[in-house]
Structures are given as structure tokens and as C-alpha cells.
Amino acid sequence: MYNVGKAGLTFWSPTMNLLRDPRWGRTLETPGEDPYLIGKYASGYVRGLQQLDDKDRLKVAACCKHYTAYDVDNWKGVERYKFNAIVTKQDMEDTFQPAFKSCVTEGNVASVMCSYNQVNGTPTCADKNLLSGVLRDQWKLNGYIVSDCDSVDVIFNAQRYTKTPEEAAAVTINAGLDLDCGVFLANHTLKAIQTGLVKEVEIDRAVTQNFIVLMRLGFFDGDPRKQRYGSLGPKDVCTPAHEELAREAARQGIVLLKNDNKFLPLSTKTIKSVAVIGPQANVTHDMIGNYEGIPCSYITPLQGLSEHVNTIYAKGCASVLCPPENLHLDDAKNAAAQADITILIVGANRSVEEESRDRVSLLLPGQQATLVSEVANASKGPVVLVIMSAGGFDISFAKSNDKISSILWIGYPGQHGGAALADVIFGSYNPSGRLPITWYPESFSENILMTDMRMRPDTSTGYPGRTYRFYTGTPIYPFGYGLSYTTFKYSRLKAPRLVNIPTGTACLFKHCETISATGSYCNDLSFQVRVRVQNTGTRPGAKSVLLYFTPPHVHNAPRKQLISFEKVYLEPWEAKHVVFKPCLLQSLCACGTCAKLNQEVNKNSTAQHDHLFPKLIAFRFTPKTIFIPKFSTIFNQKSSSRSVLSQEPLLFKKIQTFNVVPGGVM
Predict the structure, then answer these.
(1) How many CB atoms lie within 10 A of CB 348?
(2) Per-residue exposure over 573-591, b if at least 16 CB sit within 10 Å of its own CB, e if not
(3) CB-facing half-sphere around the CA of 610: CA atoms within 13 A
(4) If residue 64 lies in a helix (H) or strand (E), which one and from where to where?
(5) Is the pTM here over 0.85, yes or no?
(6) Where does the Glycoside hydrolase family 3 C-terminal domain lie (predicted)?
(7) Which are the catalytic amino acids?
(8) Which candidate, 485, 489, 595, places its Cα nearest to that of 551?
């Protein structure tokens, strides 16, 4: 009927779970570890799939999944079907939920999929607060709620959450579930109704939600060939423009991690031969990850590089798992000894990381590290190391190896990933990618349980926390890291000297003055930060400008938090202005600060803990991370007393101080 009879118009995508742990097998499906970034990714993804001129109609129906706090698949025998994620309220509010909220409120997604796991003892697909309370009532989901496939069956047969299958059907439907991906509800709902466990009004609600989405998709509008996109067919898929788009997407995703002495890009005028070595050097299907479509064509790394220069190919390992018996060092070392340059392409594939397969180590699989080191030592010339993977690795041995001049991470780059890699290595494209995840040392996987859901560090036990927002250890490479073939200079052009936050306008608790972080009230409290970015090098290039916020050091707030970003393209010596307009209160609440403060006020109505809001904000500037707003003092509104919370050394070159005062200017 649609898509040449090969598919419908509902696509259960995007996967938008936050990458809490680097070992998660489904890293290749996720956009990263930052809740703000994931929210922007998901809402943009959904709008791209769904949006038409008529906001009530749908092009296709997207689905944000897997709701919520889901990122353990199968780790050392702990399976997602039985895993109970113990999550604090603060972590839930500022880490696991914000991206889903953005997907619903900003993206207007047509469906949300609940996950297999339990959260604090309740299966997500049976949690009325999460489904009816949050998705429906708070966020106003305009669509249906669907289970992950067979997860209602899992609630009864794997988790033993209910005594009977009818009770499992009832508890999910009554919680707000509208659709079962599976046959469990089809088999057991009727009896649940007959025994009084489910009322017909709940069935009416679920059916209505599903049929509304079908109507918005045009399922009842007649012959689909006569509708707006009815003329589309196979001829529209593999067009030159679409194939170039695949190549461009791969180019933009490549991250340059190391480039000693500006070794890259290579010049075909001086390089006559390249040894291309590694288990991922000539792969096809591995490049497109999982839940993949059928590519128009493939260009492998070996094929892409061979278009520019003569190549000598050696696999080195028979497979990406690279057990000792499949390590072929002699051929690899001989190839490296003959060529002017050696390019090693290693990493992972779905035999290492995928759904239902979590990693247990952050080291390169099998004997790959041995292959890299031995080939680097035998190489006649410098070595370029290319990592093809979703998750990060502890490659500290390569980072510190002087023979390895450059390191590139290419993710799973898609059908023309090999051509994109060659474009970067030989300089027709200047890399601009930044890491969406932290690359941790192997000690993290040795000492930290994947099942420990805590985001925040615990100094009493040595627990280091997770993601760049909380991790107190030293990463191999940090979130947001990425080099370029050119250089950039930043300067602050505009930032307000005073942000005035009046209190009492939107009182949330009777024992203290509070403020709201929503609606027009927040718009009135937004402020503008203008940054001048200049390309000071000799090559054109793009730069992602990241705006971070550092909240007060109270209530286990993050070390810093991304609150905006913008990518700019600049010719040599060209300059552009980047304008950010963040909301101060939303920045606070994104860090879990205002929610935590309000909780404490509510619990301590005798005013032993008065409601606290920041007194001083400082924009601190560094050429590499742009602006980091830093709250250095807090203000006690009830007593009007001031208390200095922390006095950090001035690590930045410039400071602009903002006063935040209750109801006036100081």
C-alpha cells in the first residue's frame, strides 16, 4: 500500500536513550550522553519525519523510544527483561526525562514506546504515573503509547509482576498503554474486561489514540497514489543528490582525535603508496550499523583510499574479534614496512556491540591493540589510526605512541563511509565532528557496575559519576572533543551585566518565594550572549560552538551542562557572530537544581532550609569551550543574607559578573 508495498507509514524511531554507560550495546543507535543534545536531536528528527504544512497531518509517524531509564541490555547475565533500574528522582528529572520531554513537547511526536525494564520496581509499560501522568497529562502527548515488542508478555512471564496474564493486560492498559507490539493483549484483554479488571472506556481510549494517528497519516483518504507523496518510488531513492547526502553526513560525523605536527591531511603529491591494514579496512555491511536499510551502493575505506593513491592491503585480523589464532601479523607488518604511510582501520561491529549485547571491556577487541602497536613499530612511515565503532575505547596506548601521528573516529559511517574517510584524510574535507560521548579508561569498566544507575559521584565510596556532566575521573577523550585542520579564535561581543529575577510572581510553595521556569515568564528572563568566531587558519572549516552552564555547587548539581550550540562555516580569516539566547531558569532546572531546591523547601516548611537561588553569575571565557556561566555565590531570599558557597581559582581569561537579586537591582 505504501513504500511500494514494503512498509507502512509508521517508523518506531528515533532511539533517544541517553548513553549513561559506555558499555551499552545499543550505543550505535543513540545520539550521545547529553540530555539537551539528545532532546534537540530527537525533536529535529521527529519533525523531519512527520511535518507537513498542515500541523494536524503527518508525513510519517515517528516514535521516541525507549521510555525510560533504559540502557542495560545483557551485561554479565543481567538482561533488560528483568532489570530493575533504581533511579533517584533527581537523576530522573535532569538526566533521563528531559530528552523525552523535548521529543513530545517540541517535536510533537506521534508515539512513544515504553521499555522492557522496571524503574524503581514498576515496569515502565505498567507505570501509570510515567504514562498517563507524565506523557499524557504533563507533556500533552498527541499520539499513542506503544510497548516495546513483547514487553507486556515480559511483565508477566519474565518479571512475574502480576499473578495472571489478565492482570498484566489490565495493569498496562489502565496505566495508559494504547498498543501492544506483540499478541499478549490480543490474547488476554477480553478476559480482563470480562472479569472487571479493565473498563471499556480504557479500550475506547486506546483505540481512539491509534485511529487518530492513522487518520493523520491519511489512511482513510482513498488511493495513496493520488495523495501528496503518491508518486514517490524506487527511482527517488538512489539519486545522485541522495548518495552525496550520505557521503556528506559521513564526512560531518568524522572526529579528528589526534594530529601531531599537523600530519593530516595527506598530499597525493608527496605520498605515493599507503598500506591499508585492519579488520575494518574493507568492510561493507559493518559500516551501516543496525536497524539498517538497503544501501544504494558501498564504498569501503580501502576503495575510497585507493581512489587517491596506490594501496597495499592486509587484513591483519581475520575478524573484528581478533582472537590470537586469527592474528596475522607478518602480512600486516610487511605491508607497513613497504608503504610511505600506514592507515590502520580497527574497532567494532555488531559482534561486539548491539542490541542484547553489552560490552564488558573498553579495550579494543581481542588482539587489535597488539596489531596496532606491532604494525606501528614496523611501519616505514607515520601511522594513521582509524576507529570504526559506536562506543569509545581506551586507546591511551595509541594516543601516547609517537609513531601514530593521527587518530580518527568515524562511527559507523554509512554506505559511502570509505569515500568520506578518504575525503578527510586527503584534505578535500576539513573534519568538524565533535565527540557526542565521553571515552573512558578501562578502569571504569573494571570498577563500576553497569547496573549502578547513579549519575552523580560519591566521594565517600570513590564512585566517579557518569558522563561529562558528573564524571570526576580523567577521560581518554572528553565529550565535545574534536580537532580541525584550521584554527579558530573566539571573542565575547555581548553579554548582559544584570539579570533580574523577581520572586513571588509564580509562587509554588506557601512557605517561600519561588519562581517558574516555564512559558512567557521564562522568555522574559532569557538573555543574549553574542560570540565572534574567526577562522584564523589557511583552510576553510566548520566549528560547533558550544555554550555550557555551570550551576551552583549545591544539591549535587552537574559540573557543567550544555545549554546551546551552533555550527558555523568559515572561510580562511572569515568571522561570524554566533548568538545564543538561553533562559537562566531553564538552565538551572536542566541541572536539577530548582527541582531539588523546591523539594527541600517543601519538606522543610519550618524554613530551616530556605529556598535558595543564585546571587552571582560569572561568564568565564576560554578559547576552547566558549562561555561557561559560573554561579559562585548563593542568595538566601528569606533572610536576605548572603553566603559564599565556593571560591574557585580564576581559571579563565575574562570574567563578566551578573547580579541576580530578588525583586530589584543591587
Answers:
(1) 26
(2) eeeeebebebbbbbbbbbb
(3) 14
(4) strand 64-67
(5) yes
(6) 254-485
(7) 148
(8) 595
